[in-house]
Amino acid sequence: MNNATFLKLAPLIVFLLISSVHIVRAQDYYESTYQYKPVSLGITVSPSLSWLRYGDDDGYESTSKFGFAYGLAADFGISENYYFATGLWINTLNSEVNGGSGATGDTRKYRLQYAEIPLSVKLKSTQRYFRSYYGQFGFTTSFKLSGRESVDGGRSASMGSGANFLRLGLLIGGGVEWQLDHNLTLATGLSFNNGFTRAVKRGEPKNSYLGLTLGIFF
Fold first, then answer.
1. Which CATH architecture has domain 35-217?
2. What is residue 58's predicted lDDT score, i.e. its pLDDT?
3. What is the 3-state secondary structure (H, E, C) of the chain?
């Protein structure tokens, strides 16, 4: 190949090289996956909707209210797709109740705050397109930090022993984890927590909540 021919073909060669680089980068973006991390720690927040369940006692009418949880989360890898998920959250559950045995239509608002520890198994799909899907199932153990109530719009007062110290719940949820970088993941999901121990003594209800989970893992 003489110099004149090479000069004529040089622009075509450069164009093909640039195109191949873009193709490789596109394939890497859509097909590459990161290896799973054995341990991931993160910060999570969770706005929630909570309510009290009185079972067969029709003397009470419960209204759901918004609450909020925040804290630390940790995923410990068992294998690439199986994790033990735990953490420590500060969880505030609000609810409102009308009526009750011996009451004349009074309205009570409850604000129960717990230190909550989830103990669950998280199942993750293989990561594709920089995201993976997960399902989560397990239990939560919660310890009361404070319990307050107000009656008929009056001043809020401490419930003392009127609110149970221990709360146990069944946790189920799922969502998507988005890989933002090699060491940064955004988690989004929904969870349902079904309490199966008594929350307050009056009427002996159990409390449950539905939460929107948002977390950043490092």
1. Beta Barrel (2.40)
2. 67
3. CCHHHHHHHHHHHHHHHHHHHHHHHHHHHHHCCCCCCCEEEEEEEEEEEEEEECCCCCCEEEEEEEEEEEEEEEEEECCCCEEEEEEEEEEEEEEEEEECCCCCCCEEEEEEEEEEEEEEEEEECCCECCEEEEEEEEEEEEEEEEEEEEECCCCCEECHHHECCEEEEEEEEEEEEEEEECCEEEEEEEEEEEECCCCECCCCCEEEEEEEEEEEEC
- Mean pLDDT for the chain overall: 84
Determine the 3-state secondary structure of 177 from DSSP: strand
pTM for this structure?
Answer: 0.79
- In tens, the pLDDT along 112-150 reads 999 999 999 999 998 888 899 999 999 999 999 999 998
Q: What tokens appear for 42 in the block?
A: 């993160």
